[in-house]
Amino acid sequence: MPIVVTGCQGQLGSELCRQLGTEAVGLDLPEFDLCDAQGVRRALVTVRPRAVVNTAAYTLVDRAEQQPDLCHAINADAVGHLADLCRELDAVLVHISTDYVFGHGAQRQIPYLETDEPGPQGAYARSKLAGERLAAAWPRHFIVRSCGLYGRPGPRSAGNFVATMLRLARQGRPLRVVNDQCCSPTYVPHLARAIRFLLGTRAYGTYHVVNTGQTTWYGFAAEIFRQAGLSVRLEPITTAEYGAPAPRPAYSALDTAKYHALPGRPPMPPWQTALAEYLREAGRWADGTA
Length: 290
What we know:
- It is a single chain.
- This protein is an alpha/beta fold.
- It is built from ten helices and twelve strands.
- Helix 5 packs across helix 7.
- The longest helix has 22 residues.
- The protein is globular.
């Protein structure tokens, strides 16, 4: 019985399909639309998967402030429908969520546990928390919260922070990067490997799966340039100076102790180690040798 991966042309979905190989059945737009309840039902009943990994999402955080209904339809309502179908098919549901569900801890300095009370701010964050709660209605679920994903681009992925920083740096322009948002950026192949592991267990529930440690986006950018051997004029700025329409968490680092307590789990390395792996692999993706 196969594993369905929704959003298979995105960054995480495409990596999961690569790692799962022939086990994976990838589904994505335009043929597969999460908001088309009948179409989703037909697809899943036809495949009859043993698990559904939902990597599809509305992720345009700022645009969500103008499109809250569409954002909620994709990130919450559609997830509830997936949970109902997984119950009907007796399939495991893996739903990918986000550190943005913790948006209220401006003074916090300790990474969030799965048991900490969420406090989403903004339409995107609220929709993701609503999706979590609908996914959890089916007991055989994994909710996997992660953060700041970067990795090999998928056919439909919009890029990532590391690739953007490297592209801008090579243009020789000075860069201004936010230095008052602290999180745990995560390398997609490590996250996909962890999801594959969870699928082989019955340890259902919510997990924080990120590369360990924490940094600001400014600190992340500085480490990118250091490891890449690039000299860049880099200026720290505040979230207020950046001026994005949607609120961002000031602190949303995630604690991975629950995941790392699982016997036999593949570790989530420190974010600096993960970045070094990405930089080694990126050239191979570009020249087609990987």
